[in-house]
Amino acid sequence: MICKKTLLRAIMLPRPAACLRLLHIHRRSWPLVFLLVALLLFLSVSGYLEEFLSGILSICHSTPSHVPSPQVLNVPIPPFLLSPASACSSPPFLLILVSSAPSHRDRRDAIRQTWGSLSSSTASASLTLFVLGVPKSPEERAALMHEAVTHRDIIQANFTDTYRNLTLKTVTGLTWALEKCKGAQYLFKTDDDVFVNTVLLSQFLRGKYGLQYMGRLHWHVSPTRDRDHQHYVSHEMYGDSYFPPYCSGTGYILSHGAARLILEQVRSGPWLPLEDVYIGILAQAAGIAPSHVAKIAGSLTVAHSTCCYRIMFTSHKLTPKAMQEAWNMLKEAGSHWCPSVLLLYCKLFSSW
Ligand SMILES: *[C@@H]1O[C@H](CO)[C@@H](O)[C@H](O)[C@H]1NC(C)=O
Ligand SMILES: *[C@@H]1O[C@H](CO)[C@@H](O)[C@H](O)[C@H]1NC(C)=O
Fold it and tell me: Where does the pLDDT of residue 61 fall: very low under 50, low under 70, confident under 90, or very high at 90 and above?
């Protein structure tokens, strides 16, 4: 607890009073102070400061007490209706699980035609699959079945596809991955309106090892107690005033081992309806600390420019048209050079 509070205080920018005190120092030192402030601003806006600080979280966490067991998982989810196991016959390095809704056919097609078209045999060594529940209307059910037969990229379990069932959707996708795609070393959970630079993400992950739970970190978030709110959480569901630190559901990485330890913590429902928070709670119970990745945009839509798609791992809230444009920019860029400091530009000119 004390550890968390100190961390939070460290993240906050210096207060004006502290700055004024700084200004009393000799004029000759001003350029140095200016440089330091600029550096601090760069580090905090770019997210690198948070990335560094989040590394300390793992010290606060107790490490997992046991090595993941290789046995079959016992996760209480409904049976699978669609299971594209053949897609994993040659396991990808990175398996991307996209949470999608039945009516989002246009978004799924946009992903299939763009970043999702990359396969295990390309530089990204990734496989993209969609995770859905069962649509309410018979027409939608038939359309989805037809789509699944055509593309063989849909994982479906027997639950009603609703917003409040999103947690079930995530748990379904992760369970499927661990049971039917055992060779995938990393899992990436994302949504159907997110652009993912899979090649860059894979390159980044090749340098990692051990248990990993990474993404856009959210610290010190309190549950919404307003009954009419989409994200309402009752006291029975979650009693504490704050959630543990968790990674934004728009895109988080789990190494195979971390996913297994997390799923071992799943108990029978009802589950917290916020899937990303729920994974954060399970991770904490499993003793896995989340870490911040500056290049994962979270809920930001980064500046719509070539370099941003080359530098960032994700960008949120892209329409199918913008998704196609982003993909074309990325493809046409070739070896176009983009210095990393442009990350600052991508974030400063981003929107929510
Ligand atoms: C799916 O669940 C429904 C009830 O929720 C049940 O009637 C149906 O038989 C189940 N289908 C399969 C294939 O398990
Ligand atoms: C979630 O899915 C289950 C199984 O189909 C269903 O019984 C339940 O009503 C759904 N929950 C919500 C909140 O939609």
Answer: low
CB distance 102 to 144 below 8 Å: yes
Spacing, Cα 174 to ligand 1 middle (Å): 21
Quickly count: other Cβ atoms within 10 Å of residue 278's Cβ.
23
Residue 187 near residue 97, CB atoms below 8 Å: yes
pLDDT band at 253, cuts 50/70/90?
A: very high
Does the pLDDT of residue 4 top 80, yes or no?
A: no
Ligand 1 pocket member 158 (CB < 6 A): yes
**Residue 183 CA: distances (Å) to CA of 79, 178, 186, 213, 286:** 22, 8, 9, 18, 22
Task: Centre a 10 Å sphere on the Cβ of residue 131 and count the other Cβ atoms it contains.
Answer: 25
Domains and CATH numbers, the chain: 49-297 (3.90.550)
Rounded to 5 degrees, what angle do the CA atoms 198, 202, 206 make?
175
**Sheet of strand 186-191: strand arrangement:** 80-82, 154-160, 126-134, 94-99, 186-191, 246-255, 213-218, 291-292
Cα angle at 184 between 57 and 76, to 5 degrees?
75
| Cβ contact 205:134 at 8 Å | no
- Distance set, CA 26 to CA 31, 40, 76, 311 (Å): 10, 20, 65, 39
Contact call for residues 254 and 283 (beta carbons, < 8 A): no
Q: Say yes or no: CB of residue 207 within 6 Å of ligand 1.
A: no
Beta strands in 162-271 (DSSP E): 186-191, 195-196, 213-218, 246-255
Residue 158 alpha carbon, nearest atom of ligand 2 = 5
Ligand minimally distant from the alpha carbon of residue 80: 1
Q: Whose CA is nearest to atom 11 of ligand 1?
A: 158
For position 16, what pLDDT does the model report?
A: 46
Half-sphere exposure of 224 (CA within 13 A, CB side): 11
The two structure tokens encoding residue 331:
């493809």
